[in-house]
Specification:
This protein is α+β, with helices and mostly antiparallel strands and 93 residues long. It contains three helices and four strands.
Length: 93
């Protein structure tokens, strides 16, 4: 498997997340996260997002110019910052 850091040119990355927390605090973080990714979608960075049926897992496909931008997107995810979600895989393509 090629790691996302091997990509220096624009590319897509599919990010897979699992839920760590489902408390009221988590709902607040997930709401902030929704706004965060909506802003990225409005700027053309989020291509698609969704949930896996009957699972506490979801995915987001982002379009990034390089690995640094990908790291910034991941680091600024409110639900990851608060440990509500866990990034389980980043698959570049």
């Amino acid at each position: 498997m090629i790691h996302a850091s091997a990509y220096k040119d624009p590319h897509h990355v599919m990010l897979f997340f699992e839920e760590n927390d489902n408390t009221a605090h988590a709902l607040q973080c997930l709401s902030a996260r929704e706004n965060y990714y909506q802003n990225l979608k409005n700027s053309g960075k989020v291509v698609m997002s969704g949930n896996f049926w009957n699972q506490d897992k979801n995915f987001i496909i982002v379009y990034v110019s390089n690995d640094v931008e990908l790291e910034q997107i991941i680091e600024n995810d409110p639900a990851l910052q608060q440990n509500v979600l866990e990034l389980v895989r980043a698959m570049p393509f």
